[in-house]
Amino acid sequence: MSLDDWEFTVRTETGVRYQWNWQELMALPSETPTVDIHCVTKWSKFGTRWQGVSLDVLLANVESGAEYALVRSYGDYTTNLPVEDLLDGKAWIVHRFDDEELPAEHGGPARLLVPHLYFWKSAKWVRGIQLLDEEELGFWETVGYHEYGDPWREQRYRGD
């Protein structure tokens, strides 16, 4: 995907849109979190280094009372999360990994990073977040993955 065509949109539960192009995202304050990541296939990687914009920054001026978010990716992949899991230093839109641009096969140019949940919640090729009053399941959640995905409670599949 061309960076000239990339955009990130937050749409509130009332339909108000907030939008950033690549240059606008790069102009925002960035952070460099070092975090552990956990895959539903039972592997973990410790001390991974990322760079990106905190969702606290992106959502700071978004007026919303929504409790849920549906994250959308280029390619129409979706995943759902409670809004509280995107705030308070818990989530970023990242564009660098280990001091390199994030490659396409790992979600570049930008992906969501929510390291306290299983990695399928950290949607690759992110393009936006829809804020919702009621939970709407994402792609993997509709085919049997757990609605929340806490690795410490081993919430891999529905019913775990």
UniProtKB/TrEMBL annotation:
InterPro entries: OxRdtase_Mopterin-bd_dom, OxRdtase_Mopterin-bd_sf. Residues 3-140 form the Oxidoreductase molybdopterin-binding domain. PANTHER family: OXIDOREDUCTASE MOLYBDOPTERIN-BINDING DOMAIN-CONTAINING PROTEIN, PROTEIN-METHIONINE-SULFOXIDE REDUCTASE. This is Sulfite oxidase-like oxidoreductase. It comes from Streptomyces labedae.
